[in-house]
Amino acid sequence: AAIRVIGARLHNLDAIDVDIPVGRLVSVTGVSGSGKSTLVRDVLYRSVSDLLSARRGRSRPRGATRGVAREGGRGTSQGGARGVTTATGCDRIDGTDAIERALEVDQTPIGKTPRSTPATYIGVWDEIRSLYASIPDARMRGYTASRFSFNTADGRCEACNGQGVQRIEMSFLPDVSILCDECGGKRFTEETLAIHFKGKSIADVLAMDVESAADFFGSQPKIRNALGLLTEVGLGYVTLGQQSPTLSGGEAQRIKLVAELARSSTTTEKLANERAGLSAGHAAASLYILDEPTVGLHAADVTRLIAVLKRLVATGSTVVVVEHNLDLIAASDWIIDLGPEGGGDGGRVVAAGPPASIALTPGSHTGRYLRAMGV
């Protein structure tokens, strides 16, 4: 099975047809300006998003469309709404029947305020709060899980609204954030901090790095497993309570991938399958789009990233990356090589197939480098 892009002609794309195998790790390669991002982000992602919206009977928010949106009135495209072919920058998109969600996992921040942290984003913070609420001392005091949230007034420090910092407005300079002098940056009231699990308060947990926290919560499978995923992608050094604005783009992207991995085994995914009317043998899957996810990563972290992408594929999802990193390209199940050059000399499919096939293709720059790697 494959998602088929027919007649992609946005920007410098030369009316190309491309097959993207479903349930595989697919790398789109080529020199700068060959049309990689245009094909993947502006055509594939936008078109599939439109098809999914049409299938659910709603349109995408105004301003979300890039390129030229075309609607046809004849027949039904595979996976599209009946009687409507919705495509952006191409004639048609087929083969989206099994796709339930389309997501671009980019390097934008996971949140804009100090209240957003790695622990809250991947959902593990809810489990930790529930654990603290179950401690006998907390139950005796009538504390619920909301007591251990820095987003509600129950147990947070009201001087800083649970942010751990206070903002000072400067008349002619940017605002300055300083450590809250009421809670000392711990975010919670003294009464809340009096509840301990294995000798640690909720603030102590927020200050732990991911790797240490995974060991600390070793007896709690849900918490341990989620934190273990963060460690697997090379984020064991990040603290659970690290404020999202301080995370790099690469860190934010990997946290998003972990959140998706954690999500893939939840009841949310099962409910999505039920809504789509799919049997266990034909589970709804996601289409993930990543634009150069290895930028800024150490070689060891690239290896970890590849493992995470492979795990997403193992859940039945399709992962499409725009990439220059040869290690990730060589580890892909399928490669779509665009070119042969950039600009007006690009926009064509030079080769498509598994890495070994691309390595044997004359005129493919990607193939030449793969051959040098011994692929």
Please give a structural write-up.
By secondary structure, the chain is an alpha/beta fold. The protein has 2 domains: 2-107 and 260-373, P-loop containing nucleotide triphosphate hydrolases (Rossmann fold), CATH 3.40.50.300; 118-246, ABC transporter ATPase  like domain (ABC transporter ATPase like fold). Helices cover 34% and strands 18% of the residues. It has 14 helices and 13 strands. The chain has helices spanning 36-55, 118-121, 124-133, 136-140, 190-193, 202-206, 210-216, 221-232, 249-263, 267-275, 299-314, 326-331, 355-359, 365-373; strands spanning 2-8, 16-21, 25-29, 69-72, 85-88, 92-94, 99-104, 165-168, 176-179, 285-291, 318-322, 334-339, 348-353. The protein has a 6-stranded mixed beta sheet with strand order 7-10-11-3-12-13. Strand 10 (285-291), helix 11 and strand 11 (318-322) form a beta-alpha-beta unit. The chain is elongated. Mean pLDDT is 87; it is low at 61-84 and 267-283.
Q: Approximately what portion of the residues adopt beta-strand conformation?
A: 15-25%
The tally of beta strands, per DSSP, is 13
Q: Which stretches are poorly predicted, pLDDT < 50 over at least 5 residues? A: 61-84, 267-283
Secondary-structure element order, as H and E?
Answer: EEEHEEEEHHHEEHHHHHHEHEHEEHH
Radius of gyration: 24 Å
Task: List its salient traits.
alpha/beta; ABC transporter ATPase like fold; 14 helices; 3-stranded antiparallel β-sheet; 375 residues
Task: Provide a quick synopsis of the model.
The chain contains 14 helices and 13 strands.
